[in-house]
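Protocol step 4 of 6: record predicted structures for both targets in the notebook before any analysis. Target 1:
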Amino acid sequence: MDTWRFYDITHREHVVCNPTSEEKLARLVELLRLPTNAQVVDIACGKGEFLIRLAEAYGARGMGIDLSRFYIADAEKRLKARVSNGGITFTQMDGADFKPDEPHSLDLASCIGASWIFGGHDNTLDTLISMVKPGGWVIVGEPFWLQGPSGEYLEASGCARDDFGSHFSNAEAGEQQGLDLLHTIVSNRDDWDKYEGLQWFATAEYARAHPDDPDLVELVERVSKARTAYLRWGRDTLGWAIYMFRSRSAA
């Protein structure tokens, strides 16, 4: 089954495509306090909700990037409905290929929940740092282990033990690269339950409406396996946070 079609179906009920509530996303946007017409990029932007809110709040200008043609189409529809100016564009491309016109030229660079694009959390921070001005924002979303994962969970989820660190190590990684950590927005069980549960709901609704879809057996099996792994182990094992780092101003 096409990867991006799978995520399109399973995330049809989601506004934010990670385990963060809309209320917490609103807090993130409010705390950023960007200048008017700030220059921004959001890599792995999903349906564009974060960027659209930045445009609504600050008149932000810049680009959202995602590999999913479905998410980019959704983002463009949402942008057209809510923001009249042309300051934000959405582009389907590999985020690893994005380079700003000039290094250290953006007010904000973010990658919320897709550090695999750059080969992990540390490399993601390093890449985003190269994009922002002194004093600019580096915003990342990253899982972390709440407790040591069991072998059964790792096998069921397809994760490796060294895929993620702790909440502390995620935060410390930015400090070690010369960033200041200003805030973390940590997801709770309700955030996770909503994120995971809406995938089950969307899949069931799609199955009822499209019983003849040739991808349906694979779709349902994958979601069922993920549901079991989450309920049996993941809910107590995997955490998530958005880390708000700021590049240190030039002396």
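Target 2:
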Amino acid sequence: MITFPRGRQVVLGVGAGIAAYKACDLLRRLQDDSYEVTVVPTSSSLNFVGRATWEALSGKEVKSEVWEGTLSVSHVALADAADLVVIAPATADLISRIATGRADDLLTTTVLATSSPVLIVPSMHPGMYLNPATQANLETLIARGFYILEPDTGRLTGKDSGIGRFPETNRIINKVREISGRSARLVGRKVVVTTGGTMESIDPVRFIGNRSSGRQGLAIAYEALREGAEVTVVSGVTEEYELSGINRIDVKTAQEMQHVVSAELGGADALVMAAAVADARPEKIEAEKINKRELTKLALIKNPDILAEASKLKKSNQIFVGFAAETGTGIREKGLKKLHSKGVDLLYVTDVSDGKVFGETETTGVLLSKRGTEWGFQAADKHEVARQIVAELVHELGAANG
């Protein structure tokens, strides 16, 4: 079973304030909004809400120090995976440390390493919030591109009242949605991805097919979802998978896939043809199992070239991505020929010599662009290739409508 996170990745940083308990509700609401949440509390905040609570609510291991899990380089992994970092509550001390570029625990190192948007939700005593030092630190963060959600005014701990109260969860969620909408570069775009192999029946038992797992196409669908796209996956024969948020259409044969692609193409901004389509199918499908003694030859007819046929209907503002599996020498040169003959904007040609790539998590190949640029991948994670393809979709779609 291939499983993917439920949605976009959020790091929820929790500072050492009494309002830390309210972040538990925020975590739940983020999950309800289909965000995948990793909680990174400061060590001091664990005095208010313990590690066991965060792990139970998030379903993930919770770390607060860089020295926990050093083999995985936790802060770099979190920083790279995060689509958004939310720090709620953010105390005066935590805001000060971030503003001065400190990196003395897992949360501050993650913030320093990430290139994703960061939302700071201050919560503290009114005197601390209004102190010129805190206000100057917040202004510094705003100047650096951080998002700041002003706290509410109301009852705090004890008899204190004033500005500094942790905002209502709805306010934070609305701000998260606003920021995510800005950072998701394919919002309002429809991407159609074909994946997996096709199955061409010979008789009720046998078929012509291939060893495609569908992993590469699914990785592209997932990365497009992370960028806010509406994603339709035309799914051939694949490993079992669960990918929330897509419109999934299952097919078996090349003809079925061509019919669905043609129907979906009109409203699409991009087509990614990652499926491994069988080149031919039996001329006749037998209703009964063929006796093995009679199975001495098989008459075949050519399957439609789905991408080539779709290219005939391609609009000027649509972006097409093709895939090619090759063996032997001259992989790049073979890919360049197909890039131009297929009429696509991008083509990923992969080396499948000795049965490599199919069913594996890694791939070796070259991503070619009609602009003349190219990217080489050697035993790379398929998500790495997918991220580059989606980044090029963002670029090309911007250019197409520029």
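Step 5 preliminary note on target 2. The chain has 13 helices and 21 strands. The first strand starts at residue 2 and ends at 3.
Proceed to step 6 after PI sign-off.
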